[in-house]
Amino acid sequence: MEAGAEREEVGWVVALRRAQRRSRRHAIARYAQLATVEAGAPRCRTVVVRGVDAERGAVWFVTDGRSAKAAQLVADPRAEICWYFAGLREQYRLRGAIEPLEPAARQEAWEGLSPASRAVFFAPPPGTPRGEGDRFAETSEAPEPPACFRALRLVVARAELLELRPSPHERRAWVREGEGWVSTRLRP
Ligand SMILES: Cc1cc2nc3c(=O)[nH]c(=O)nc-3n(C[C@H](O)[C@H](O)[C@H](O)COP(=O)(O)O)c2cc1C
């Protein structure tokens, strides 16, 4: 273990949940950037982080299995989420591998979506050229998700928090090691 490193509980989850609580009035605080890899090149887009799983040390989101990101994650499950809480001036960088939620959790995720969000999954495949005859429903009350619905979890292997409020800034990393985590305070 390097100098300055110490064992502790999943501190990044504690901090992240606190940030979520403090930002819950702001819908924008649920938006994070998800980076994937495509043939060695970076790809990045915004997703809604739907939940933080303290037990697994993971965060999860939903997406369309027909999307480019879904194909990229099948080919290479490595991903990183960069999540900035602007009101708190805290940045979380979560690195790890993607896996699907179990069927019951996937169903629960579907039921948690608004009718407008559900409708997206019945639209023509995303990212393909738009056709004259395309139809896009505005809402869906479907009780079951279509096959293209994906609920995915990023199982975090390394988390990093940068806090811009203190001076000097505070930077800390957590690396998964066996059953626990090793936390290190870093120079900002
Ligand atoms: C605020 C915001 C939230 C978004 N949330 C999601 C989301 O939760 N899941 C998702 O698949 N796409 C979401 N998108 C759309 C993606 O950013 C992206 O445009 C789309 O999924 C296609 O990405 P891909 O071609 O890399 O697969 C969101 C976009 C914005 C601007």
Features:
188 residues, single chain, Pnp Oxidase, Chain A, alpha+beta, binds flavin mononucleotide, 10 strands
Question: Short description, anyone?
Answer:
This protein has 188 residues and is of the alpha+beta class. The protein has four helices and ten strands, in the order βαββββαββααβββ.
Overview of this protein structure:
The chain is 19% helix and 42% strand. The chain contains four helices and ten strands. It has helices at residues 11-22, 68-75, 103-111, 115-120, and strands at 5-8, 31-38, 41-48, 51-53, 58-64, 78-85, 90-100, 149-163, 170-177, 180-186. Strands 1, 2, 3, 4, 5, 6, 7, 8, 9 and 10 form a ten-stranded antiparallel β-sheet that branches. The protein has a single domain (5-127, 135-186), classed as Roll (Pnp Oxidase, Chain A). The chain has 188 residues and is an alpha+beta fold. Flavin mononucleotide binds next to strand 3, strand 5 and helix 2.
